[in-house]
Design brief:
It is built from eleven helices and twelve strands. It has helices at about 1-10, 10-35, 40-60, 65-80, 110-120, 170-220, 230-280, 290-315, 330-340, 360-380, 435-445; strands at about 80-85, 90-95, 125-135, 140-150, 160-165, 325-330, 350, 355-360, 385-395, 395-400, 450-455, 460-470. It binds adenosine-5'-diphosphate (ADP). Adenosine-5'-diphosphate (ADP) binds near residues 406, 433, 436 and 437.
Length: about 475
């Protein structure tokens, strides 16, 4: 069903092609409308405006000495024949464009001019008419504009301005434009197709490559790299997918490591328990308290591991709601430390000024302290001293656990809080752990809205700390 839909939808190339096609057709249609259909009306209105402007220029220079010169110039530049007379029909200026062609301005008698003057005056001072010349030109019958206006000059004289201008037929121009437009249509369509292919290729090539890589990723190849080229959005997509692939690969690596670690951690104590039990069963002399203790220790190790796994999965699934209540944090830490009394070699100095109360889940916060102290013991230095301190400032209490052990490389400081992460990948029996302890610490503190961190110097030791808000 989905496959069919993909098959039917149009590719980038098709879409760009259609887009360009529509664009080219719209442009051609617009050109057609403006250049072919509207050419004649445009031309006419421009021509009429030109004639009116000639009349206006003449009207404002009627009493100037240069009137004659102006009329000559205007006739030459605007192809307009000009005749100016007074109200009695006395002609002052006369310019005719084509001497060989007949014009209505010719052969107008004084009385003709006088009656035109009166007629125009009656019309309100201007009059315009067009007539078709009886002489067919090469492009068909030409049309002529006749424009008349009366002017009252500053010196009190009356003047009649008569203008005649030919409207050149645009038919031949339109025919030329039509041919041009047809050619232009083909050129634009061809250009559109070429451009569409080039642009679509540029856009779709990296997308296709990303698609192939994504399929590879889906098959479980987390090492795949996505192309980060092409348009900005596409290269950003490639970048994001590379990031996603990196994260997937990290998670996958951690998962494999966990499986290896957990199965190793489960198998080793079980082998020990089984081995010692068999020895004790078969050899009566081996039934010693030391051997029983080994079995108990290994069983404890197993229990701890399984508990850690369960705790973390509960915390992460949000299935372990906080049971917050006020309790004395300082006293709780002192109690925890007494449990380490049997570790006679180690010392646990605890520095604090006074007891403080917090509202938190007592059991979970105890687990945080246990995990930090256990880690400090595991990685403790020669002096076998784990220093704890409690400081109060700004309504918050900070608990620090400091050891003088090997420390943690700076570049690993961020990763140790991740699930299953262990700085030392070599699985040393002496350094038990699944890499879950700090992840539990982090989850519990985040649930409490607390902060946490670590400062460490290689070879000098580490200080893990966390802060909780104090009970008012
Ligand atoms: P683990 O069960 O391996 O201790 P954690 O999550 O508690 O797992 O710790 C993660 C890693 O952080 C450890 O494997 C260890 O490499 C490093 N680490 C934790 N605490 C300390 C410490 N006090 N000193 C040095 N390294 C530490």
């Amino acid at each position: 069903m989905k496959q069919r839909k993909i098959g039917r939808s149009l590719g980038v190339r098709g879409q760009v092609l259609i887009g360009f096609g529509i664009f080219a057709l719209v442009i051609v249609a617009l050109l057609w409308v403006f250049q072919i259909t509207l050419l004649n009306p445009f031309y006419r209105s421009i021509k009429i405006a030109e004639v009116k402007s000639v009349a206006q220029q003449l009207g404002s220079n009627l009493e100037s000495d240069t009137l004659d010169e102006l009329a000559g110039n205007l006739t030459a530049t605007t192809a307009t024949s000009i005749l100016i007379s007074d109200e009695l029909g006395n002609q002052y200026v006369g310019y005719k464009l084509y001497p060989q062609q007949t014009s209505r301005l010719e052969n107008l008698s004084r009385s003709d001019l006088r009656s035109i003057f009166e007629q125009v005056n009656l019309q309100g001072g201007t009059q315009m008419e067009t007539y078709t010349s009886p002489f067919a030109t090469r492009n068909g019958y030409s049309e002529t504009i006749l424009y008349a206006c009366t002017v009252h000059t500053a010196r009190g004289n009356h003047r009649l301005i008569l203008l005649e201008s030919e409207l050149t037929p645009v038919n031949s121009t339109v025919e030329t434009l039509k041919v041009q437009l047809v050619c232009l249509t083909f050129v634009m369509l061809a250009l559109g197709i070429v451009l569409a292919f080039v642009i679509a290729g540029k856009i779709s090539r990296p997308i296709s490559s990303i698609n192939e890589s994504a399929k590879e990723l889906g098959r479980g190849n987390y090492q795949i790299r996505f192309e980060e080229s092409g348009a900005k959005e596409v290269s950003e997509l490639g970048h994001t997918l590379n990031y996603a692939a990196g994260e997937l690969s990290k998670v996958d690596g951690l998962r494999r490591e966990l499986l290896a670690n957990v199965s190793h951690d489960l198998r080793t104590p079980l082998t020990m328990i089984k081995g010692y039990s068999e020895v004790m069963r078969d050899l009566p002399g081996e039934n010693t308290p030391e051997n029983v203790q080994i079995i108990i220790d290994e069983a404890t190790r197993l229990t701890d591991l399984v508990n850690d796994l369960l705790d973390l999965s509960k915390l992460e699934a949000g299935a372990a709601p906080l049971e917050c209540a006020p309790f004395n944090l300082t006293a709780e830490i002192r109690t925890i430390l007494t449990r380490y009394d049997k570790l006679a070699d180690y010392r646990f100095p605890f520095a604090f000024v006074q007891d403080v109360e917090v509202v938190a889940d007592r059991l979970k916060i105890s687990q945080v302290v246990y995990n930090l102290v256990n880690n400090a013991i595991t990685y403790a230095g020669e002096d076998k001293t784990i220093r704890l301190s409690q400081t109060v400032s700004g309504g918050r209490v900070r608990i620090s656990v400091t050891d003088t052990g090997e420390g943690i490389p700076a570049e690993k400081l961020r990763d140790i809080w991740e699930r299953y992460y262990k700085v030392d990948k070599e699985h040393k029996r002496a350094q038990v752990g699944t890499g879950l302890g700090l992840s539990i610490v982090r989850n519990v503190l985040e649930l409490h809205g607390g902060t946490y961190g670590v400062e460490s110097q290689l070879g000098r030791g580490s200080t893990f700390w966390f802060e909780l808000t104090l009970e008012e």
